[in-house]
Amino acid sequence: MVSREHKRPATPLHEKFQLLRSITNSHALNKTSIIVDASKYIEELKQKVERLNRDIASTAQNSAAQTLLPVVTVETLEKGFLVNVFSETSCPGLLVSILEAFEELGLNVHDASVSCTDRFQLEAVGGEDEEQVESIDAQVVKQAVMQAIKNWSESISQ
Fold it and tell me: Which one, 75, 92, 101, 158, has least CB within 10 Å?
């Protein structure tokens, strides 16, 4: 005698349930349980997609913020500093902020080249006031310029 399984071929619907069962890693045997497991699996996938979208948005915001801030380099010269500030974007008002930082440090600008049209580029040679008692370090100048950029950036985002 032949068993019932061998008598009738698997229906397309039965094959689809088995496929759904394998895709969702379900161990269920009846159709209702397979559908419940598939529903849970879909919810888990939705949560993963939402989490990934949040991560992507966060990464995009961080990288956008980093690319918007100008790059600053400060080199010590024989009598003063060479300050370079560069940004791929135009930065209206940034030059004023940087010059105010120079003034607060007591640096005189001896020579400067500035471009503010499509991008921002500043190359300035500055030296300390003759009357200044304490000598300024290149790192202090860089930190002051970076703080000026941060203050400028916060003022434009408000």
Answer: 158
